[in-house]
Each structure stands twice: as structure tokens, then as C-alpha cells.
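Need fresh eyes. Consider my entry:
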Amino acid sequence: MNETQHPTKQQAPHSDEIEIDLLALLRALWKQAWLIFAVTLFFGCAGYIITKAAVTPTYQTYFSIYVNNSTLTNISSITSSDIAASQYLAETAADVIGSNSIKKQVAEQADVTESELSISTSVNTDSGVVTVYIVTTDPRTAYSCGTALMDIAATEIARIVEGSSVQAIDTPEMPTTYYQPNYLKNVLIAMLLGGALACGLVMLRELMDDKVKGRDDVEAHFDLVNLGSIPDITEAGTGRYGYYAGYGYAARGNRKTR
């Protein structure tokens, strides 16, 4: 008699393809939503605490100047030829402002150390306007350094670049908010990383889980046909009409016949 043999796990055809059930992944993410939320919130709090403890707050002020190729004192009398020449003078002015000698003079006048002072420039070559940024760890110090730098820069540029003049467009103002760090940005980045990490771990756990949880898993993993299932009697009620009732009657009958 020929016996029909169903293929077992070892007999299943070998395949290098891996099927991913997106619905199963989504169900796993939804099931672990509380964990993902908790990890995201934890990372957000950790990002704020680390930023607060490790990053020193800094304040920024700035001013803008226009470098002209003449000794004009009235900015309204600037001509197109002056603007063309100032495009080249702006680069020179930015180099002068960013020099170590200027920084040293500003630090001495504002009574701060050079390590506490940061000076950077931005040049608009189309208009010849130079914007100077001053960053320190104290708002009052930033303001005093800005006013000192504007006066020193005007004197030094006029001395180094003969026949030029500096016109102030924007003057330094007292900073009222942090320049760095950006707490909201750091917290959002930390929460994004935490949420992505939690989702990745949940999906990895779901993909690595090869336990058989139901008839669908049996058919998928072992290529077997499901012919039937045995009910779990432990889930039945313990009342008179439950599975345990029959066992109770049988046990009492055996005791009577002895």
C-alpha cells in the first residue's frame, strides 16, 4: 500500500527568497505602540538633559557695514561706480575684521578672553555689504564686543585700505534669546532617533520570530495541509457542561465500582 507522505520542514524546497508580511509588521508595531512611545519620550528627555548639561549657551549679535572707495560721509550719495568698487573692498574688509589683531583688540576693550569670543563675517558681493557676527557666552558681553568691534573695524579698515570709508547700516543689539543650543531641535532629533530605533527593534524581533503560532504558520513554514485541530480543553469552562464534567463523572463511577 502506498503511503502518502507530506513534506516536512526538511523536505520543503529550498528557496533564497524571504517573504515579508507588511501587515504582520504593522500589527506588531501597533501592538508595541506603547513601547515605541515610551522609548521616544525617553530619548526626548535624554536629549534635553544632555543638551542642558553638556552644551554651554551662547548669544549672538551682529552689525552690517558698507565699505566705500572714497571718504564720503553721506551714504545716500553713493554711485554705481562706488558700488562696483566696494564689491572688491568688501572682501578685504572681511579679512581685516577676521584677523587675530582685531580680535585681540576687541577682547581687551570688552574685557573678555579671546577663547570666549567668536567673530565671523558674511559678504554680499552684489551690494558690497559686510555682515559681522559676534558670539559669546553672555548677552551683555556680546553687545559690548559688537559695539567695540564696529568702532575698531571702521578705524582699521580706513587705515589699511587708503581712500576708503565705512558706513554703518545695522548696529549691534542686545541679544535676548539663545543662539546655541537649539533645545527644540535637539529634542526633536533625539525623539526621532528613539522612535526609529524602537520601530526597528520591534520589526527585527517580528522578522526573527520563527515560532509557530497558528495553522497559517504551519502551512507557511512546513508546507503542510491542515486537516483539523484539537481544541484546548484548559480553556473550557469548569461547569456541569464543560469538558471537565465528563472526567468528573468517570472518576466518581470508578470509585463506586471498587
User: Anything to note?
Assistant: The CA atoms of residues 65 and 168 lie 4 Å apart. The chain has a mean pLDDT of 78. The helical segments are 22-31, 33-54, 80-97, 100-110, 139-160, 183-208, 215-222, 243-257.
